[in-house]
Amino acid sequence: MIDHLPRYERIWLLLGIGSIIVFLVVLGTLGIFVGLNPPGHMRTIAPEEVAATAPFDEPGVTQLGPNEFRVTMVARLFAFDPGEITIPRGSTVHFEVTSPDVVHGLFIPNTNVNIMVVPGHISEYTYTFEDEGNYAMLCHEYCGVGHHVMMGKLVVQ
What we know:
The chain has 1 helix and 11 strands; from the N terminus they run αβββββββββββ. It is α+β, with helices and mostly antiparallel strands. It folds into 2 domains: 1-37; 43-156, Cupredoxins -  blue copper proteins (Immunoglobulin-like, Sandwich), CATH 2.60.40.420. Strands 1, 2, 3, 4, 6 and 9 form a 6-stranded mixed sheet that branches. A hairpin with a 2-residue loop joins strand 3 and strand 4 (79-81).
């Protein structure tokens, strides 16, 4: 079958096929026998019911304890709700974000906050804001013609 190929091409072809087989065996072993899989605790929500389902019917900031907050957000064409968030310095923030319409993103530059917001899913991320300042909240997934105006503000005092 590959006898018509030059010797070195056959060697590289066999090395490539061998690498793919090894990769698939390792991946299968990790997934099936070791149990390494993507997190399965993903929460879902019906996109058409976002506005009527708690806690997304009243998005905002909830204090959970000293310097610990939950931010419930809805990303929709072409805005974040709430659009401005204020928290004290050193606060740990548990983001809880969903979308009723299209795929959005929540990106806060100079932090590790980078969340993909998919309709029907509740995306969660936790981050501690150590430095004071004004942080932009940007949509980093193209969501339509008004994508460039989709931004919010997070103020750390």
